[in-house]
């Protein structure tokens, strides 16, 4: 009886040990198949790129080229033709073309089977900045020392870093001035933050430093029609009043206050409003 019991315990212990030593079955086939697919895809991609990476034989450069020298664009393209149809660095080529003065943006595309297409868009000068710089319609200075500055462009001036701020106000004023038959010749922002607008007819509009939006709206509503009708008589408008403006006549006389201006600028804002 004892022997039978011991034998039963040994068999149970053996079964437990065998059960403990049993390892999970590893499935290698799916993993190997997935790896093979990846390797095959990479190899086919590399082979396809090798077959398609033909030497570039045709380069087409398109653009108006009124300000941008076509030879400079061609030089930039030649310097970056260091790859084939697939391996050429289109981004580097685009940056090189856009670094040319007067280039606003460039578009570079591959043209099957061995061609390259480069489209150049030139900057459009919307205004002058200072004596020799130019500003585009986004308010960005793109030519600091322009060789040719179109004299018909309005001149914008301001402290360093104020280019966008001054340009934004000019672009807001431009269409609204045209509605009244006026055109801006210059817009200035002083170091102290005072605004001054000079019209093409020579009339100067002083906005000062404070309440700019309110004073601009007052000028457009009441001052601009007056200037449009009497430009030969008016030298300047002083908008630095709480609810009106003063007229400075071309012939010596006392400035006339209109629209119920409560007090002259000096009395309202002494030495603080440009």
How would you describe the overall organization of this protein?
There is one protein chain. The chain is an alpha/beta fold and 274 residues long. Among the domains are: 58-122, membrane protein fhac (Ubiquitin-like (UB roll), Roll), CATH 3.10.20.310; 154-268, Rossmann fold (3-Layer(aba) Sandwich). 38% of the residues lie in helices and 23% in strands. The strands form 2 sheets. A 10-stranded mixed sheet has the order 6-5-4-7-8-9-10-11-12-13, covered by helices on one side. A 3-stranded mixed sheet has the order 1-3-2, with helices on one face. A hairpin with a 3-residue loop joins strand 4 and strand 5. It starts with a helix and ends in a 6-residue tail after the last helix.
Summarize, please.
Among the domains are: 65 residues, membrane protein fhac (Ubiquitin-like (UB roll), Roll); 115 residues, Rossmann fold, CATH 3.40.50.
Notable features of this structure?
274 residues; single chain; Rossmann fold; alpha/beta; Ubiquitin-like (UB roll); disordered N terminus; ten-stranded mixed β-sheet
CATH superfamily of the domain at 154-268, called what?
A: Cell division protein FtsQ/DivIB
Distance between the termini: 119 Å
- Radius of gyration, CA atoms, in whole angstroms: 38 Å
Largest sheet: 10 strands, mixed
Q: Could you say which structural class the secondary elements and strand pairing correspond to?
A: alpha/beta
- List segments where confidence is low: pLDDT < 50 over at least 5 consecutive residues: 2-6, 261-271
CATH architecture of the domain at 154-268: 3-Layer(aba) Sandwich
Q: What proportion of the residues form beta strands (DSSP E)?
A: 15-25%
Count of strand segments: 13
User: What order do the strands of the largest sheet run in, or round the barrel if closed?
Assistant: 6-5-4-7-8-9-10-11-12-13
- Helix residue percentage: 25-40%
Q: Averaged pLDDT, please?
A: 83
CATH C-level name of the domain at 154-268: Alpha Beta
Structure annotation, total helices: 7
CATH topology of the domain at 154-268: Rossmann fold
- Secondary-structure element series: HHEHHEEEEEEHEEEHEEEH
């Amino acid at each position: 009886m004892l022997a039978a019991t011991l034998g039963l315990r040994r068999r149970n212990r053996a079964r437990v040990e065998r059960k403990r030593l049993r390892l999970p079955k590893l499935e290698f086939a799916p993993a190997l198949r997935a790896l093979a697919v990846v390797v095959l895809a990479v190899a086919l991609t590399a082979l396809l790129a090798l077959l398609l990476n033909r030497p570039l034989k045709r380069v087409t450069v398109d653009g108006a080229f009124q300000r941008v020298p076509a030879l400079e664009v061609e030089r930039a393209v030649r310097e970056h033709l260091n790859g084939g149809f697939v391996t050429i660095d289109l981004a580097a080529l685009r940056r090189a073309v856009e670094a040319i003065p007067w280039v606003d943006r460039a578009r570079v595309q591959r043209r099957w089977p061995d061609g390259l297409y480069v489209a150049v868009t030139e900057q459009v000068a919307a205004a002058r900045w200072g004596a020799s710089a130019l500003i585009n319609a986004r308010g960005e200075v793109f030519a600091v020392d322009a060789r040719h500055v179109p004299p018909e462009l309005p001149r914008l001036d301001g402290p360093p870093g104020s280019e966008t701020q001054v340009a934004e106000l000019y672009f807001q004023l431009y269409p609204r001035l045209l509605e009244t038959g006026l055109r801006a010749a210059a817009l200035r922002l002083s170091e102290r933050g005072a605004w001054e607008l000079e019209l093409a007819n020579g009339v100067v509009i002083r906005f000062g430093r404070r309440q700019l939006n309110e004073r601009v709206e007052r000028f457009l509503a009441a001052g601009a029609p007056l200037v449009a009708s009497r430009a030969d008589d008016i030298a300047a408008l002083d908008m630095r009043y709480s609810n009106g403006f003063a007229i400075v006549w071309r012939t010596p006389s006392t400035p006339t206050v209109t629209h119920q201006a409560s007090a002259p600028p000096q009395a309202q804002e002494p030495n603080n409003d440009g």
